[in-house]
């Protein structure tokens, strides 16, 4: 039954919250645009690409246009038109002919059609973007969607896994599940598949505590990719910061992707696994002054983007994408905070990894760790309690900021990656660097008042070679990207051990498998927070492609048809994670001091040469020395449990041997208790799954095979049982 005429009247509504908010009887629309002269909402209440109704928002409050429209229900698609001056030379790009996506859309339906209509200017004009286009684009632009936010979360609560218990698994929703044989084919590649018992079983088997999802904010397949028949597989081209991308949804009902995402989170939480989102607030999909007009550019270009002060026609680009969002503007900062809070409070995610996070810290031009974005996050009672991870660089001047972020933040530590790779794959003299990396990178983080958990340690990530390809290729092979193999990093700090790519040579295969285990072991037994690149535990290959951002195919998808060495690597990874979680000394909350607490006591960490003697200063610079022993002395390590009770962890002995030939290593004294006189081997990279079973008396000698990690804990002489 149609609403009575009185009820159909547009009302002023409210300026908060922004976006489309349904109250059971109608929808309030609110859009920020400080410089528009008029803002319309276009409703698409059927499948046509022409609006069934156009509503001029009647009120403007502090730059926010708003109005309440009775009868507009969930499932209604809508877009925004903003009128105002079109003066690109002044940074103003309003064009009322162009339909725009509401930046606060909670769901987005449809894709960009790459025709001339998505550009605000006349492409035939010799002045490029200075001449306005008057052609409407309704059929070429995705539409926002009114949603019903109701969802039964049951007993779901934030997991709040401590940082020092966290093991992160960086994963692509589609790539992880697209070929999984135990997941129903009709849901593979979706949020539902990510929350499926078969997917969760693999994560639980490994011991993963958090998945870090590559971008799921609604994003665009860039024009230059679609022209080559490719797509933006990784998703670093955001269109909507509130909307989960529909391409990962098996639910085709209007707005179904929102509930399906929530179901995924609920399922992962029930299994004890946190959900961290890789988010891209540094730029959008609209490119530079010649890019398309899809949303922000047409709603309020001068506020949403960083423009050149003396030539506002052009964009400041710290990101390499053509534009940078203006986190320095109060309303843009508000949008970022609203988005982050929405994903925590409404979608129940547990944290965020911020792409090119240095850009967010540029209040003016230079990076400022005390800038507005960081202040806003730190004072927010919701956001200050979740995991915050920075990719601590961008391409602008002074953008490399590893170690430069505020105290609540952790960071991707590329120095860990580079130093560990160099130790295992080159002859570079990196022992001093390895000392810092193995103990949490105090040289980077301690001076700023941060803990070892500030270092998110990684060997590989989505951007670069997989672990398998790291030990299999000396050069990149990105030919499938259509850029003449000129994209991606120029070279690999690796060795291909005598053969490029796949090989049937058993010796080369065995060496490669050992090197995978060595680097995974180093990652998992170092202080800090380990992040495994999803699929590395499967020996996943991208056929030498180290920049597979546009490869939505078998190059990127996980292959679950596992061979024996892949199954062994899974088991090794699970065993190593289990050992890490069992041994408190391997996941300390505080940095080692490297000295006795008081006269007569022992050091919390002691560095040992193969002869069993303690490192001297000259040993760190010995180019021939390829072996490091670390004794983490339990008696000297002060830890507490969650209730504040003191804990005395077991000692742990870690041996890292990077040389090609075997070496004899003299085991040190146990230094804990009269009954503990032996060391029991708990794991070795010399066997496919890490299994090892022997004990050796303190001060005796053991043989370390070439390129090997070995882990020991104290035991008694009677039964050899290890202390936990």
Which descriptors apply to this entry?
724 residues; alpha/beta; Immunoglobulin-like; TIM Barrel; six-stranded antiparallel sheet; 15 helices
Detailed description of the structure:
The chain is of the alpha/beta class and 724 residues long. The protein folds into three domains: 5-145, Sandwich (Immunoglobulin-like); 163-561, Alpha-Beta Barrel (TIM Barrel), CATH 3.20.20; 585-716, Golgi alpha-mannosidase II (Immunoglobulin-like, Sandwich), CATH 2.60.40. Helices cover 20% and strands 19% of the residues. It has an eight-stranded parallel barrel. A six-stranded antiparallel β-sheet has the order 22-23-26-31-28-29. The chain has a five-stranded antiparallel β-sheet with strand order 4-3-7-11-10, with no helix packed on it. Helix 10 (414-425) packs across helix 11 and helix 10 runs antiparallel to helix 14. The chain is elongated and about 85 Å long.
Which SSEs are present, and which pair or pack?
Elements: H1 5-8, E1 19-22, E2 26-32, E3 38-44, E4 53-56, E5 59-61, E6 64-70, E7 77-83, E8 86-87, E9 92-93, E10 108-109, E11 143-145, E12 168-171, H2 173-177, H3 191-194, H4 197-206, E13 210-213, E14 217-219, H5 223-226, E15 238-244, H6 256-270, E16 274-279, H7 296-304, H8 330-345, E17 351-354, H9 372-379, E18 387-390, E19 410-413, H10 414-425, H11 431-438, H12 442-445, E20 455-457, H13 467-470, H14 506-525, E21 529-533, H15 564-582, E22 605-608, E23 627-632, E24 639-640, E25 646-647, E26 652-657, E27 663-666, E28 676-684, E29 695-697, E30 701-704, E31 708-716
Parallel strand pairs: 12-13, 12-21, 13-16, 16-17, 17-18, 18-19, 19-20, 20-21
Antiparallel strand pairs: 1-2, 2-6, 3-4, 3-7, 5-6, 7-11, 8-9, 10-11, 14-15, 22-23, 23-26, 24-25, 26-31, 27-30, 28-29, 28-31
